[in-house]
Amino acid sequence: MSAQAPSAVILIRATSFVPNPATAADNAFQADAPAGQSDDTTSAHALAEMDALAAALRGVGVRVHVFEDDDHTRPDSVFPNNWVSTHAGGTVAVYPMYASNRRHERRADVLEMLKSEYRVQAIVDYSGLEPDGIFLEGTGAMVLDHVSRVAYTARSHRADIAVLERFCTDFNYEPMAFDAFDADGVPVYHTNVIACIGTDVAMIALGMIPDEARREQVRERLAVTGRTIVELTEEQIREFAGNAVELCGRTPEGRRRYVMAMSARAKRSLRPEQVAAIEESCEIVAVEIPTIELAGGSVRCMIAGVHLDHRPEQLPEPGENVVAINEDNPVTPDGRYVAKDYA
User: Fold this and answer.
1) Which of 126, 174, 218, 244 could be disulfide-bonded to 262 (CB atoms 3.0-4.6 Å)?
2) DSSP class of 316
3) What span, in angstroms and rounded, lies between the C-alpha atoms of 274 and 106?
4) Whose CA is closest to 94, among 74, 75, 119, 112?
5) By three-state DSSP, how is residue 87 classified?
6) What is the mean pLDDT of residues 214-232?
């Protein structure tokens, strides 16, 4: 199995969703909901899109952990990849968040599920850096090459280079930081909107890196394992073509299948030869999520990949109806986890 493509993911099923006003100032991809549309309608549309993504991933054999969130004070909780990441060898990272109203998206029940269902050796928590104004928003701020152990990072106030280097020391990655801007000179707020790294293919808007020498270093580093580089335009980035993620699913017969999950909007922006290059190594799974994309993130932002070894299945006794992982992590009969705050 590829170290790059996780076979399980975490999704947050948020019953309240609106574009977050606290993140609008530096997120050039964010947009307002249609004029006259109520928050309840926006939330309902987003909830249907979240369910569609979960169904699409399960349909290609990806293990999906869905956590319910009924807290109306967490408008961006649908994007868990900004606060948690998991790593082969049994380590979990928890990150410091820039927007103060996003910091209580961190949840103890997510961490407890990981510890109970997967082999977790340690949790490294960087969130204590928030009072010092130091932030690194997880795999939004960093796009991780788990094969070559490189952390590609566009500099921004959501990606502090000092904590990036600390993360790389703790988790054995090589930091590769660079500046990236749009045509108006606005810094890219999260690296994962301009770059996606798969096992055998990488999609990236190299043209948004103005330093030619650094641009070529990034290109060469990505290609060192023989990856195909699919260069994206800024126009395609605006359509969230870079905000994709490779996952490992299963066919109905149990064979591995590699998929590239992205939004339908993102796929429509790709040229036929780009689609063909991606499909040389993985199948594209595209889902319509126009409401969620109003918040400035797309499918990659919605997915926290699980790069941990799964514990052996605990088979229930005959006749036992199992609806909970343990006493602290109740789930609904359809497998959704009940919300519980991080502490």
Assistant:
1) 244
2) P
3) 36
4) 112
5) strand
6) 97
Structure tokens at 141: 């701020």
- Taking residue 129's Cβ as centre, other Cβ atoms within 10 Å add up to 17
Q: Which residues are CB-neighbours of 96 under 8 A, at least 6 positions away?
A: 126, 127, 128, 129, 130, 134, 135, 136, 137, 163
Q: Render 130-198 in DSSP notation, one character per residue.
A: GGGT--B-HHHHEEEETTTTEEEEE-BTTB-HHHHHHHHHHHT-EEEEE--B-TTSPBPS-GGGTEEE-
The residues, any chain, with a CB within 8 Å of residue 132's CB and separated by 6 or more, are none
Going along the chain from its start, the domains and CATH numbers come out as 8-337 (3.75.10.10)
Q: Report pTM.
A: 0.90
Sequence letter at residue 263: S
**pLDDT reported for residue 100:** 92
In the structure, what pLDDT confidence band is assigned to residue 163 with cuts at 50, 70 and 90? very high
CB proximity list for 330: less than 8 A, separation 6 or greater? 323, 324, 337, 338
Look at residue 28 in the predicted model and tell me its pLDDT: 78
The number of beta carbons lying within 10 Å of the beta carbon of residue 53 is 26
DSSP letters spanning 245-288: EEEEEE-TTS-EEEEEEEEHHHHHHS-HHHHHHHHTT-EEEEE-
Among the ranges given (83-97, 164-178, 234-248, 307-321), the one the predictor scored with the smallest mean pLDDT: 307-321
The per-residue pLDDT of the chain, averaged, comes to 91
Write the pLDDT tens digit of every residue in 275-306. 999 999 999 999 999 999 999 999 999 999 99
